[in-house]
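Help: read this over?
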Amino acid sequence: MSFHDGAAHFGPLTLEADVVIVGSGAGGSVTAAVLAEAGKRVIVLEEGRHVPQAEYGKLTPSQQMRAMWRDAGLTFAIGVGDSPMINVMMGKCVGGSSALTGGVCFRTPGHVLKTWREERGLPMFTEEHLAPFFEEVEQAVHVEEVPAHLRSRSTVLFNEGATKLGHAFKPIRRNTHGCEGNSKCNFGCPKAAKRSVDLSWLPRATAKGAQVWTHCLVERVTHQDGRANGVVGRLLNGDDGGPGTSFTVYAKRVVLAAGAYHTPLLAQASGLGRTSGQVGKNLTLHPAFRVMARFDEQVEGWRGALQSMYSDDWEHDGITMTSMFLPPGVLAATMPGIGPRHVARARQMAQLGVFGGMVHDEGGGVVRRSPGREPLVTYELHRKDKAAVPRLMRLMADIWFAAGAKEVFLPVLGLGGVTPDRLRTLDLEHVKGRDLECSSQHPLGTTRMGSAKETSVVDPYGECWELPGCTIVDGSVVPTSLGVNPQLTIMTMALRIARHLAQA
C-alpha cells in the first residue's frame, strides 16, 4: 500500500528508507519520483491529509479551504513599518500548494538568472543549463498555452482596455490538460484538468514503491557523526488531531520540502544556520493586489480559465499583471460594505471584471520560531516595492476605465467604488500600508542557495552546508524573488537536485 495515515496508527512508529522526504508539494513530489525511479527506497512524510482528486474536485471552496489549506487560508505575514498584512495562502495536504495554485507556469526569467550568476555567485544557472530540466518538467505536467477561447469576458475586457492604451498582453502557460474553463483552479479542478504534482509526479513515485505517510509532524532532523541520518516527530493522532505518539525515520538521505515557512523552522530546530545567520531570512512573497471593475454589461468572469493572460510590460517597475477570477461565492465575500450595502454590491457579481498585479519584491520577510506549530512571520516592503503599489493600482484602474468600466474597486480597505474623476483626486502614494488588501501564494528564499556557507544555507545542489546528507528542494532555496509564479522554477530546481542525488 502506498498511502498510510499516521492519524490511524497508534503507538510509536519506526521506519527505514534510503531517502526520507519531508513534504509532498512541488519540490518533494518531483524528488520522490526521480529517486524512486532510480531504485531508492523513498518515504514521503506529509503533515496534512490525503484528499484524492475525486474527493476534492467535489468540495465547495469553503470545504476545500478547511480540508487542504494551511490555517483554512488564514495564514498571514505581519506587516512591519509601513507595510500591509499579507494573506499567504499555502497547502497542507498531499500535493501541497501545487494542488491549490492557478497552474501558471513561467520559466525563470533570464534577467533573474543573470542576478543569480552575477550577484549570488551561481554561474551554473544559465538558460542553456536549465533548458533540459524545464523541458522535462513541462512535459511531465503538460504545460500548455491557454487558448483564446478559454479567456473569460473579464480578461477580454481588460486586454481591450490595455490595447487602447498601447500595452501588450500575452497568453499564459499552465500545467493543464483538457481544461474546460471552470475557474476553480485554486479550489480543486472538478475535471482533474490541472496536472498538479499529486496527479503527475507523485503517482510516478508510488508506482515505484515510494510510501506516503500523512498526518506526520516532523520536528527535527537527526544526525550522527556529522551527517544527517533521519528525522523524528509526532503523529497527529492525539486529541482533536494534535500531536500524539512519536515516530522516527532512519534514512541515508534527508530531503526537506516543507516550504519557505516551515523548512526554516526544521532547519533551526535541527541546529542549522549558525554559520550564515540566513535561515528564516530573505523571505520574498510577490505581494499581490487585486483590482475589480464594474461594467453596465454582463461579464460573468467566472466563465473561462481562472488565469489566461499576463503582461510583463512593467517589469522595469517591478510589476507583473495576470488575469484572474475567483469563484463567485469567494469573490462576493470580498466586496466592500456591510449589511445591505454589501448585499447590493455582491448582487453585481455578474457585472464585475477582475485582474491582478504583483510586485517583484526585494525580500523583506523573516520567519521566526514561535511557541506553537506555526512560525511568526514578519514582512517589510522595501521602499522601492512600496512605490510600485500606487503605480500598479493607477495603471490597472486606467486600463479598466479604458475598457469601459463605470467604477473600479481598488485594494484599499474602506475606499469603496471609484469613478475616473475620483481616481484623479486620490492620493494613492500616501495610503498607509495597513490599509492595503494584499495576498501572496509565492513565499520563497528562507534557506537560500549560494556559493558560500557564510552567506547562504545550501550549496548549488541544495545540500545544507552545515549538515551533509540533508538537502532542501522547495521554494525556500530560490536565491531571489522571481517576479513570476514560481511553481515551474521550484519543480525544475528540484529535478536538477534530484538527478544529482540519484547519481550519488
